[in-house]
């Protein structure tokens, strides 16, 4: 083999390079650093109801807060240090995630522009090769790294007993990317998957959205959507020329990047109902334990006051 060809072959990423991305820690030294950090974070005070990651518009965060939930947004648009592909950004999002209470919600909406079919001519991604074929493209490398970090957040939500929902357009192949696939199938139990048309919630375009996560209330969203009347004259997000090349319509694409307010409200309402049900069951279990304990000691009257306090 000529020297030039051998050098090119050595520089070309292989499947094993992408398999390495399955694991969030590339070396033992890095693992030790993150392990120490996570140990300290897990001992923190967990009082946050919801964390919305990649929430540039704050529509979802505002809707969650309107339902009486303590919610926080995390996005690079508010602070350049919030880039989770960097050590600083990843430590920040981990510190926020560690504050989410058990059965709280982590909503992940990673940027989709480099994973959908509209931009496939640039990133060369497909369901068979979701990591893409544009090895030298910095954007492809960056978005692969971003998806790998998102997969790590999914694993952590599983271990910290936090509900997690990941959102992508229906044409996105991010869920086929190996780190994401393993996190979704191995880290989420049970795993719920639904498709919702945002036009049912007032969006200008149809935009089918796929939602994958551990929140059982996800199945309520298609039911709510099916009961809505969709207005006619929906806008298109892309056009196709005679040669088959697809071009995204800039204005329509920019508008579709944000959730309709009604969709965010429905998500927030479902999580608020879940929280109320979860804590009602928790209090009922504590009350039953108190009743049994005081009944055993012949002091049933004390439990009445304690149950009313709970």
What order do the helices and strands come in, and which of them pair?
Elements: H1 3-11, H2 15-20, H3 28-41, E1 48-53, H4 59-66, E2 71-74, H5 87-97, E3 100-108, H6 120-123, H7 138-159, E4 163-169, H8 178-187, E5 192-197, E6 208-213, H9 220-226, E7 238-240, E8 246-248, H10 250-256, H11 261-296, H12 300-309
Parallel strand pairs: 1-2, 1-3, 3-4
Antiparallel strand pairs: 4-6, 5-6, 7-8
Question: Could you characterize what this model shows?
Answer:
- The chain is α/β, with parallel strands linked by helices and 310 residues long.
- The protein has one domain: Rossmann fold (3-Layer(aba) Sandwich), CATH 3.40.50.
- The chain contains twelve helices and eight strands.
- Strand 1 (48-53), helix 4 (59-66) and strand 2 form a beta-alpha-beta unit.
- Helix 4 (59-66) packs across helix 11 (261-296), helix 7 (138-159) runs parallel beside helix 8 (178-187) and helix 11 packs antiparallel against helix 12 (300-309).
- It starts with a helix and ends with a helix.
- The relative contact order is 0.11.
Quick overview:
The protein is of the alpha/beta class and 310 residues long. The chain has one domain (24-260): 3-Layer(aba) Sandwich (Rossmann fold). Helix content is 46%, strand content 14%.
């Amino acid at each position: 083999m000529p020297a030039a060809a051998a050098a090119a072959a050595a520089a070309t990423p292989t499947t094993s390079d992408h398999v390495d991305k399955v694991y969030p820690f590339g070396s033992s030294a890095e693992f030790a650093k993150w392990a120490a950090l996570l140990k300290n974070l897990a001992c923190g005070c967990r009082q946050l109801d919801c964390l919305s990651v990649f929430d540039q518009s704050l529509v979802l965060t505002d809707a969650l807060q309107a339902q009486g939930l303590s919610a926080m947004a995390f996005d690079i648009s508010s602070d350049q240090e919030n880039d989770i592909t960097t050590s600083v950004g990843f430590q920040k999002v981990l510190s926020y995630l560690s504050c989410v209470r058990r059965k709280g919600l982590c909503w992940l909406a990673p940027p989709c522009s480099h994973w959908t079919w509209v931009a496939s001519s640039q990133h060369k991604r497909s369901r068979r090769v979701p990591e893409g074929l544009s090895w030298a493209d910095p954007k492809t490398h960056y978005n692969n790294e971003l998806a790998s970090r998102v997969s790590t957040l999914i694993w952590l939500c599983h271990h910290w007993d936090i509900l997690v929902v990941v959102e992508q357009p229906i044409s996105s192949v991010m869920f086929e990317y190996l780190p994401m696939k393993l996190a979704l199938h191995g880290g989420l139990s049970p795993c719920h998957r639904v498709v919702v048309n945002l036009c049912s919630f007032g969006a200008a375009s149809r935009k089918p959205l796929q939602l994958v996560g551990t929140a059982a209330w996800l199945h309520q969203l298609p039911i709510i959507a099916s009961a809505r009347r969709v207005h006619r004259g929906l806008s298109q997000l892309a056009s196709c020329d005679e040669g088959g090349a697809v071009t995204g319509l800039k204005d329509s694409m920019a508008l579709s990047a944000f959730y309709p307010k009604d969709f965010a409200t429905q998500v927030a309402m479902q999580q608020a109902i879940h929280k109320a049900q979860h804590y009602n069951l928790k209090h009922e279990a504590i009350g039953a334990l108190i009743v049994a304990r005081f009944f055993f000691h012949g002091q049933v009257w004390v439990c009445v006051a304690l149950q009313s306090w709970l």
